[in-house]
Amino acid sequence: MKRMNVIYMIFGVASTLLLAQAASAASNYLVTESAPVYPGDMRAQIRQVCENIGRALRSVGADFSDVVKTTTFTTDVDEYHRVSDERFKYFKRDLPTSALIGVKRLADPDLMIEIEAMAVIPTDRAK
């Protein structure tokens, strides 16, 4: 049986990006950007979150097809459903197991969406 690495990633909208290898705290790193982007524009925030996820995945030798689970937190479930097609531009194959959770507010009042993603990457491809 081939050993797999599990990568757990937490994302905000251009405010915080955290990538952590589940088995090793030594491999954690944090990238912080200045402020949330695209206040009031759910579609643009989904796009930015997906770009952040893609950047983190590529940094460890993975892509969106390696994502096995996502949890999306949003301040507006109805608006999310209206623009969720933006997500399909990134998750092009079978969609991962997903949960959508409506929340009153995220860490910054301008954030409308946050996505947690978990990817499983074969050790021979992991960077």
Which key terms come to mind for this protein?
single chain, 2 helices, 127 residues, 20% helix, 60s Ribosomal Protein L30, Chain: A, alpha+beta
CATH classification class: Alpha Beta
Radius of gyration: 14 Å
Query: Helices and strands: which structural class?
Result: alpha+beta
Beta-strand portion reads 25-35%
Q: Which spans of ≥5 residues are poorly predicted at pLDDT below 50? A: 20-32
How many helices? The count is 2
| Helicity, as a percent range | 10-25%
**What is the assigned CATH homologous superfamily?**
RutC-like
CATH topology: 60s Ribosomal Protein L30, Chain: A
The CATH architecture comes to 2-Layer Sandwich
Q: In what order do the strands lie side by side in the largest sheet?
A: 3-2-1-6-4-5
What's the β-strand tally? 6
Described by its quaternary structure, the protein is single chain
Q: What number of structural domains do the residues give? A: 1
3D shape: elongated
What is the H/E order?
EEEHEHEE
Tell me the distance between the termini.
20 Å
**Mean pLDDT, rounded to whole units?**
77
Major pleated sheet: 6 strands, mixed
What does this protein look like?
About 30% of the residues are buried. The protein has one domain: RutC-like (60s Ribosomal Protein L30, Chain: A, 2-Layer Sandwich), CATH 3.30.1330.40. It has helices spanning about 40-60, 75-85, and strands spanning about 5-10, 15-20, 30, 65-75, 95-100, 115-120. It has 2 helices and 6 strands; from the N terminus they run βββαβαββ. The protein has a 6-stranded mixed β-sheet, covered by helices on one side. The protein is elongated and about 40 Å long. It has about 130 residues and is α+β, with helices and mostly antiparallel strands.
